[in-house]
Specification:
Length: 150
């Protein structure tokens, strides 16, 4: 215990911070809101640059993939296969919209906001993104609005 406390104090004094634990996003057949089906929980995540998100297939039959028309330019691709657990580290600031490919039309989307991001700009892009199902578009707009207020 004494060693851990000493290490924490030394890291704080040198300006080095211990790595933050990954935020866990669960993939669900029934969302956290009554009557909601096929959802990520939480659907809005904020992490600092260099922060990590752990995707957990709580219920089977889901994956995590980018929404290509809204993915930040030059950002590395993301692909968490069906029924797989994965931790992804985000090294660049931006808004990273993800989807469960078979359930996007049912609104199974989420936003990973990394560092400071212009949520107004993202909301405008999402409102006119080609090929996005209405339920997914509406949810992304609501998530962007919530992220812009926090």
């Amino acid at each position: 215990m004494m060693i851990r406390t000493t290490l924490t104090v030394l890291l704080a004094m040198t300006g080095m911070a211990a790595a933050e634990p990954a935020v866990t996003v669960r993939e669900l057949n029934r969302g956290p809101v009554a009557g909601e089906t096929f959802a990520y929980d939480p659907a809005l995540v904020r992490v600092p640059v260099g922060g990590s998100v752990r995707f957990e297939p709580t219920d089977k039959g889901h994956n995590v993939a980018p929404i290509p028309s809204l993915w930040p330019a030059g950002a590395p691709p993301l692909n968490v296969p069906f029924n797989s657990d994965a931790t992804v580290t985000f090294e660049r600031p931006g808004v990273y919209p993800v989807q469960c490919t078979p359930h996007t039309g049912l609104g199974m989307v989420a936003l990973i906001v990394v560092g400071d991001a212009d949520m107004t700009e993202f909301a405008a892009k999402a409102a006119s993104a080609p090929g996005l199902a209405p339920k997914a578009r509406a949810k992304l707009g609501a998530l962007a609005g919530a992220a812009g207020q926090s």
